[in-house]
């Protein structure tokens, strides 16, 4: 009889415990961890739900999961080896699963929907535009967050980080740095001026890339249009008189691809502690006038802030996946913990994540 019950009786419910929320819930068959958590009313960090944005990154403390898609595109090999998973792509296998997530920043406003129009564009490089959008009402956000943008007829939204320091009452005028994607329907139209009069749908804020509140040394790395969220974060930190040593590395191909250098230098001049700014060029002609650093920007991480204690330092990175992965590898080799590395991967238009 017991054998028949085991074969044909009701299956044992799977339970998931989530820290630091201190809650548990039961799973239904074939639900992802994220789907079940949201159904249970848990404010689980997320956005894209297809495994590319990394917002639902969680640390698996107990149990096993089946992955609907490879975690390796969004997470680094170091993170996967340390037990990190993507909740939106993970189906628990065992009766009990325990995960830990980093809660959303406490003062982050809830996402809302806005409408807006492009007020101005400015060419920053041959393939990056500064796009100024006037909204129907002010939007509040935390420095480092992003918004979803959609135009009429667009199949899916694009995600862009705020390039501005936030204001207490919100900003009605916002700026994004948008990189042209060859063949990308939206960016091709944007650069050709074909969406200048279009009504834009904006939803936000989203994301958990933000400055953690401590006095640890900061190592910041930006690549391409990944400069936007770091400018937002650093401008706000300067304005609020954050006092902690900071190293800012900015990777570009050539001198023509460097932009906002004067603004970064102004941040450095007004910083309340030591601030080192180092632009690095990877494809600058050998016979040019450039006398600065050459190579991959992540090769200069070890030169950051000589004498710092890497075990207490924090990393903040925004840019392409290859740069992020190399940065994580270099920082952890120096002794920085994975939990102290915060990043935003900017992918191309073939993925549902931040659009460069």
Element string (H = helix, E = strand): HEEHEEHEEEEEEEEHEEHEHEEEHE
Largest beta-sheet details: 6 strands, antiparallel
Which spans of ≥5 residues are poorly predicted at pLDDT below 50? 1-9, 349-353
Overall radius of gyration = 22 Å
Q: What is the CATH level 1 assignment of the largest domain?
A: Alpha Beta
End-to-end distance: 61 Å
> Could you say what the CATH topology of the largest domain is called?
Rossmann fold
State the total count of DSSP E strands: 19
Total discrete domains: 3
Shape: globular
How is the largest sheet built, in terms of strand order? Answer: 11-10-13-8-9-12
Any idea what the CATH architecture of the largest domain is?
Answer: 3-Layer(aba) Sandwich
Strand content: 25-35%
Percent in helix: 10-25%
CATH superfamily of the largest domain: Nucleotide-binding domain of ferredoxin-NADP reductase (FNR) module
So how many helices? 7
- Secondary structural class: alpha/beta
On the 0-100 scale, what is the average pLDDT? 88
Describe this structure in words.
This protein has helices at 2-8, 33-39, 77-81, 185-191, 227-239, 261-270, 321-334, and strands at 14-19, 23-27, 57-62, 65-67, 84-86, 90-92, 96-100, 112-123, 128-139, 146-150, 158-161, 171-179, 200-206, 218-223, 246-252, 275-281, 293-294, 314-319, 341-345. With 356 residues, the chain is an alpha/beta fold. It folds into three domains: 11-100, Beta-grasp domain (Ubiquitin-like (UB roll)); 112-206, Elongation Factor Tu (Ef-tu), domain 3 (Beta Barrel), CATH 2.40.30.10; 218-345, 3-Layer(aba) Sandwich (Rossmann fold), CATH 3.40.50.80. The protein has a six-stranded antiparallel beta sheet. Strands 17-16-15-14-18-19 form a six-stranded parallel beta sheet, sandwiched between helices. Strands 2-1-7-3-5 form a five-stranded mixed beta sheet. Strand 18 (314-319), helix 7 (321-334) and strand 19 form a beta-alpha-beta unit. The termini are far apart.
């Amino acid at each position: 009889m017991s054998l028949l019950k085991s074969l044909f009786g009701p299956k044992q419910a799977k339970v998931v415990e989530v820290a630091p929320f201190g809650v548990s819930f039961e799973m239904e068959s074939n639900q992802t961890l994220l789907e079940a958590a949201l159904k249970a009313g848990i404010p689980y960090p997320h956005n894209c739900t297809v495994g590319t944005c990394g917002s639902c990154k969680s640390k698996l403390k107990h149990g096993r999961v089946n992955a609907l898609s490879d975690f390796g595109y969004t997470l680094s090999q170091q993170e996967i080896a340390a037990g990190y998973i993507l909740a939106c792509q993970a189906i628990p296998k065992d009766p009990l699963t325990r995960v830990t997530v980093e809660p959303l920043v406490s003062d982050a406003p809830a996402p809302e929907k806005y409408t807006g129009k492009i007020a101005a564009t400015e060419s920053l490089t041959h393939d990056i535009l500064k796009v100024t959008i006037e909204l129907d009402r002010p939007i509040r956000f935390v420095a480092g967050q992003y918004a979803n943008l959609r135009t009429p007829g667009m199949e899916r939204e694009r995600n862009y980080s705020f390039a501005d320091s936030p204001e207490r009452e919100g900003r009605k005028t916002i700026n994004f740095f948008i990189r042209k994607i060859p063949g990308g329907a939206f960016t091709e139209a944007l650069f050709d001026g074909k969406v200048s009069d279009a009504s834009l749908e904006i939803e936000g804020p989203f994301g958990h890339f933000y400055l953690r509140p401590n006095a640890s040394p900061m190592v910041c790395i930006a690549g391409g249009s990944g400069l936007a969220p770091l400018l937002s974060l650093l401008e706000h930190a300067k304005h609020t008189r954050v006092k902690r040593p900071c190293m800012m590395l900015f990777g570009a191909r050539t001198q023509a691809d460097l932009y906002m250098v004067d603004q970064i230098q102004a941040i450095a001049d007004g910083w309340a502690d030591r601030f080192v700014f180092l632009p690095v060029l990877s494809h600058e002609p050998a016979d040019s006038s450039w006398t600065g650093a050459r190579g991959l920007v992540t090769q200069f991480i070890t030169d950051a802030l000589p004498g710092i204690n890497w075990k207490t330092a924090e990393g903040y990175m925004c840019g392409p996946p290859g740069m992020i992965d190399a940065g994580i590898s270099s920082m952890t080799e120096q002794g920085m913990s994975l939990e102290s590395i915060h990043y935003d991967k900017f992918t191309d238009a073939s993925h549902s994540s931040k659009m460069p």
